[in-house]
Write a structure and sequence with these properties.
- Its EC number is 5.4.99.5.
- The two termini are about 40 Å apart.
- This protein has about 350 residues and is an alpha/beta fold.
- The chain is built from 13 helices and eight strands.
- It has an eight-stranded parallel barrel, surrounded by five helices.
- The chain has two domains: about 240 residues, TIM Barrel (Alpha-Beta Barrel), CATH 3.20.20; about 90 residues, Chorismate mutase (Chorismate Mutase Domain, subunit A, Up-down Bundle), CATH 1.20.59.10.
- The structure holds prephenic acid.
- The site of prephenic acid has 11 residues, from helix 11, helix 12 and helix 13.
Length: about 350
């Protein structure tokens, strides 16, 4: 289905990036108000704080629940900032709306669960609140789009997406792998859907927030949602990935904002060159597949298996080393040749089964 969207109509809609900032969790009234005042002084328009916290394991701080909602009202009243929080159940939706929360977001674990998404969509029916949907924990674009569709079918048109990265078993650098091609593909499929980057959850470490924000801007993301706490080291949740409002302001001040729409004669010429090279690449690929099909007939005649592992390894090693010499990432070269090999095997299987 095609999403029927309306602009988010947030106070800084025309600025890129629009920024939603605030602590991971609303811990105490004092922590909420101190952080909010500092953020508002730096010109922040939207304040986030977790009221209900889905924790991986029991025993951690799971949020103050309804008790913290009047603090959010106080933030809005005193600073004029809009407020945003995560909702995961119809009860959360009801309470958040009762206390005038302006922007809701859906967490990654909820997005991954179609039953929970449908329950949220039903609870939101008839409201006009903007809803931002985080990517599911697993890199499944269809599941992400499905969650947006459920909300849209319930009449929610002020929709956005939050890219918070994807879980992985073995993660060294990032807390959640960015896998940028997924939000890039989301943007290609639904160009009018605003996409917000969440560097705090992708990075999991303060030092990664600035480079991730810049990368999101380089890719043309619309906004940022960043965890900011008046005293991050003492935070009750996600201490390592929160920054003080002044550090956040410094990070934002250094961002280089690029314009997606500017196309100069220079880039038009370069794109012509790319088109020409892509044509050559396609011709070369089609030549290679022709030879592979010939080998396929040979294999059929001589009763050989399609998969020839030692030859395949030889190709991966040789081209990987060559790629490194040309300054290309080894994973990229491996992926290219793995895909070429997969197609070649597919075509040969077709031939030997004819
Ligand atoms: O060398 C072969 O046997 C081929 O069929 C070619 C090719 C390839 O695409 O390079 C395809 C399948 C084999 O597993 C190994 C290599």
């Amino acid at each position: 289905m095609e999403l029927e969207l309306e602009p988010l109509r947030l106070p800084s809609d025309n600025e890129r990036p629009f920024v939603i900032a605030g602590p991971c969790s609303a811990e105490t009234e004092e922590q909420v108000m101190t952080t909010a005042r500092q953020l508002a002084n730096y010109g922040c328009h939207m304040f986030r704080a977790g009221i209900w916290k889905p924790r991986t394991k029991p025993g951690g701080f799971e949020g103050n629940g309804e008790k913290a909602l009047p603090w959010m009202q106080q933030v809005k009243k005193e600073t004029g900032m809009l407020t945003a929080t995560e909702v995961a159940t119809p009860e959360h939706v009801e309470l958040a709306l009762k206390y005038g929360i302006d922007v809701l977001w859906v967490g990654a674990r909820t997005t991954a669960n179609p039953f929970a998404m449908q329950a949220l969509a039903d609870a939101l029916k008839g409201t006009d609140v903007p809803v931002l949907v985080k990517n599911p924990t697993n890199p499944d674009l269809e599941l992400w789009i499905g969650a947006l569709e459920r909300l849209n079918l319930a009449g929610i048109k002020r929709l956005g997406a939050i890219h918070r990265g994807f879980s992985s078993y073995d993660n060294k650098i990032y807390r959640n792998l960015p896998t940028w091609q997924i939000p890039i593909e989301l943007h290609r499929r639904i160009p009018d859907l605003p996409i917000v980057n969440d560097p705090s959850h992708i990075g999991g470490r303060r030092e990664l927030i600035a480079p991730l924000c810049q990368q999101a801007m380089d890719l043309g993301f619309d906004g940022l949602i960043v965890e900011s706490h008046c005293d991050p080291d003492k935070a009750w949740s996600d201490a390592k990935q929160q920054v003080t409002p002044d550090v956040l302001d410094y990070i934002l001040s250094l961002l280089v904002i690029r314009d997606e729409t500017v196309t100069t004669e220079g880039i038009v010429q370069l794109r012509k060159q790319i088109d020409e090279i892509d044509n050559q690449l396609m011709e070369m690929l089609s030549k290679r597949m022709r030879v592979c099909r010939e080998i396929g007939y040979y294999k059929k005649e001589h009763n050989m298996t399609v998969l020839q592992t030692s030859r395949y390894n030889e190709i991966l090693d040789k081209r990987g080393a060559q790629g490194a010499l040309c300054g290309m990432a080894p994973e990229f070269v491996a992926k290219v040749f793995e895909n070429i090999h997969e197609e070649s095997v597919r075509q040969q299987i077709e031939i030997i089964n004819k």
